[in-house]
Amino acid sequence: MQLRVVVAPVFGTNCCVVSEGGDCVVVDAGAGVADAVVRLVDDAGLTPRAVLATHGHADHTWDAGALCARYGIPMRLHEADAYRLADPFATLSPALESALGLHRADYRAPTDVEPFATPNGSTTLELGALTLRALHAPGHTEGSTLYRLDGTVLTGDVLFAGSVGRTDLHGGSEAVMVRTLRDVVAALDPALAVVPGHGPATTVGDELDTNPFLVRAVENPG
Question: For the chain, what is the total number of helices (H) and then of strands (E)?
Answer without folding.
Answer: 7, 13
